[in-house]
Amino acid sequence: MSSTVAPDLQNRIQTISDVFAEFDESQVNDGSDPTFVLDQRDIEDQLERMCAYRVPADEAVRTVVRKACTDANLDRDDLTDDLAKLAGYSGRPQKATRTMLNSIDEADKWVDIVAEVVELWEPRSEKIAQVGLLGDESGRLKFVVWASADLPELEEGGTYKFDSVVTDEYQGRFSVSCNSATSISGTDQSVEVSDGTTEVVGSIVDVQEGSGLIKRCGQDDCTRVLRNGRCADHGQRDGDFDLRIKAILDDGERSVSVLFNEEATEAVTGISLDDATTMAMDALSTDVVADEISEQLLGRRFRIAGSIFGTYFLVDEAEETDAVSAGLDADAVAPALTQRQPATRLFAEELNATTHTFQESDEDRAPVYGLTPTGIGINRVFVVGTLTETADVGNDSEYWQGKVFAASSPVYVYAGQYQPEAMAALRAAETPTYVAIVGKIRTYESGDRVNVAIEPESITEVDESTREAWVAEAAAQTSRRIEAFEAGEAPFGAQAQDEYGERLNDLREAVVAIEDGKSHNTEV
Q1: How far is residue 23 from each of residues 6, 27, 103, 451, measured CA to CA in Å?
Q2: Preceding peptide of 373 cis, ω within 30°
Q3: Distance (Å, whole) CA 450 – CA 269
């Protein structure tokens, strides 16, 4: 066997070889001649080729084994249990029962479904015959039809009965796979496809470039956004004005890309398309609209209802809320989740105690994490509190310091020339005022101690209700982190114990004070 084959693939090749060897041996013991001799090199080549085409390893094994069985003229009834399992023929229910799409939460299971083909996409591999989205009354799910299965072609809008499809999972996202064991037939069974609407709660921690007043092409109903007055399809265009928001909604553990259309933007900001156009004309710049949107939304907590399209959560309805549940853990939200580091909610007691940092790899651009006393790694933080003091502490150039009470204790933020918007916010702030801060944690040595501060990405003035919603959310998340640490379930609990020892008493007291309503700042 080639030494360059990945260990996992080597194991699978050896398993196939061993199972076929046992099968041939059993035939010899029965007094019959071996059906055929397995060409192990051929099996290796087939598996490597399929994996090179990004066919999932389990599906590649099933396909190769079935082909070998076909070449050997073996029927399903001829196979041993182990061989049938490798071929994917075992584990079928005795009686077909329909599985609803939203109940699929485990890989490598045989299921029967009835669903409508909601959407078809262009396959990215010649190994795939069709790929798209199925829908039933419970939800929607990706499906793949492998070319080797030789199944009938599906049509968008058609409703079909799928017998013997296999569930798959990749990075937490589930799908179903149609292979040579699958049968597909049209059906008159009525399926009321879910509209895909889902509801989540989180805070707006970033309003991204491309928000505010934009122009779209408009030619032949083209909706492409113009870049420097040009459409990628139709060239230079005057275009038509439109209003939208591209933002990041974050619940402290995950973040999702959300997209507000004109109607949703007006509903959440009160800014109409006409208002935005007038603002831009008066200021001779569209930036003023995006700036106003950022000032209104950053740091605020919303309940958002909508649907997933591609990698965006399309917002239909949004309302400000102080709810601390219904985060971004729903399976339906998975396609729109970002790779952005979440903004952890931390009280000052925990943030200031996070003096040890680490990197998960030796790569130059690997993110730096702070190790909290509760045993998690944090990169980005989200703090809402009272800004009580500001000062320019720079020597040769402006470098502004802000003191912010995150509940009952202070944290410090520093902004200089590389954070011009945050620096401007500190320079212009009238204290005391409530602010929402999103930024990275930074440690620095002062004498024989390590201090912690926030390097802000944004600083936005907010109201008291936003502050109170953050306090409640931070208290709930801090309590969960403490419980996980004490149960031995914190991701870096052992490291935190070694680094800090027992440092949770102050944090527990802070949470208790919050929950008892004693978190009012006494130093303001």
Answers
A1: 26, 7, 36, 67
A2: no
A3: 42
> What digits encode the pLDDT tens for the residues 100-128?
887 887 888 889 999 999 999 998 888 89
Cα torsion angle, 498, 500, 506, 508, sign: negative
Residue 272's pLDDT band (cuts 50, 70, 90)? very high
| Burial (CB count within 10 angstroms: exposed 0-12, middle 13-18, buried 19+), residue 524 | exposed
Same domain, 153 and 136: yes
89 C-beta neighbours (distance < 10 Å), count: 20
DSSP string, 459-507: EEE--HHHHHHHHHHHHHHHHHHHHHHHTT--TTHHHHHHHH-S--HHH
Do both 218 and 179 map to the same domain? no
Count CB atoms within 10 A of the CB of residue 38.
19
Closest to 162 (Cα-Cα) out of 174, 149, 172, 148: 149
Tens digits of per-residue pLDDT, 56-93? 777 778 788 877 777 777 766 566 667 777 777 655 44
Between the ranges 134-148, 321-335, 341-355, where is the mean pLDDT highest? 341-355
Q: Is residue 439 part of a domain?
A: yes
What is the spatial distance between Cα 301 and Cα 167, in angstroms, rounded to a whole number? 36
Shared domain check, 259 and 160? no
Is it the case that residue 54 has pLDDT exceeding 70? no
Tokens of 354: 């996070």
Which two three-digit tokens encode residue 99? 């599985």
pLDDT score, position 207: 96
Arithmetic mean of pLDDT, 258-267: 95
Q: How far apart are CA 248 and CA 192, in angstroms?
A: 32
116 and 66 assigned to the same domain: no
- Which residues are registered as beta bridge partners of 207? 247
For residue 223, the enclosing domain spans 198-339
Which residue reads 């265009």 in tokens? Answer: 237
Distance CA 271, CA 153 (A): 47
Q: Which of 450, 459, 377, 368 is nearest to 413 (CA)?
A: 459
Query: Among residues 507, 486, 483, 508, which one has the least CA distance to residue 497?
Result: 486
Rounded to two decimals, the pTM is: 0.65
Q: Is residue 92 part of a domain?
A: no
Last residue of a domain, one of 288, 306, 339: 339
Domain count, the chain: 4
Q: Is residue 2 part of a domain?
A: no
Q: Taking a C-beta distance cutoff of 8 angstroms, is the pair 413, 404 a contact?
A: yes
Residues in the chain: 524
User: Do residues 293 and 212 touch, judged by C-beta distance below 8 A?
Assistant: yes
Kindly state whether residues 283 and 394 are assigned to the same domain.
no
Q: Is the same domain home to 490 and 386? A: yes
